[in-house]
Amino acid sequence: MSKPLVVVAHPSLNGESRINLAMAEVARQAGLPVHDLYACYPDFRIDCAAEQARMAEASALVLQFPLYWYAAPALLKEWLDVVLTYGFAYGREARGLRGKPLLLAVSVGSPEADFRAEGRAGASLDELLLPISHTFRYCDMQLEPSYAIFGVDRIDEVGLAAAMVDYRRRLGALTASALAEAQPVC
């Protein structure tokens, strides 16, 4: 039985991000395949066929990334542009992603209070993630409520441990949901 695929897009996963590194490790410990885009494609030359095969095989998709200037890192955007092609991700005959759950797992430097209409960001995190959400909605994926860890620049070890327990729970729920909702693709 296939498992959710965790696609990580952090330009310095093993260097500067203890949060995204911890999240990736939680996914690995849960037995999920973790695909590090920056490790695989440092030159931004994405193997479309290989990526589509990974996605087609997965029961669900998790996009894990830090929020940079209210958007995803550059390689994730490039990956979306290259991999989500007509006939695979969208279009009448497209079956690569249809009906699969999608979870956006985002790390954010600012505190959660900043992500309100009256907050510093002027919008909620979900509002800022709309371009990505709508992209996958167009691909007929089932959007799960996003998962976010806020204030990562100031999170202590206790807070990090609690966030990882919560993330493990979300991945477990996604895995159970993907297995329960899996339908044969014709």
UniProtKB/TrEMBL annotation:
Family annotation (InterPro entries): Flavodoxin_fold (IPR003680), Flavoprotein-like_sf (IPR029039), KefG/KefF (IPR046980)
Domain of life: Bacteria
UniProt GO MF annotations: oxidoreductase activity
Enzyme class of the recorded protein, top EC level: oxidoreductase
Keyword Cell inner membrane part of the UniProt annotation: no
One Pfam entry name: Flavodoxin_2
E.C. numbers: 1.-.-.-, 1.6.99.-
Keywords: Oxidoreductase
Residue stretches making up the Flavodoxin-like fold domain: 3-170
The protein's name in its UniProt record: NAD(P)H-dependent oxidoreductase
Organism: Chitinimonas lacunae
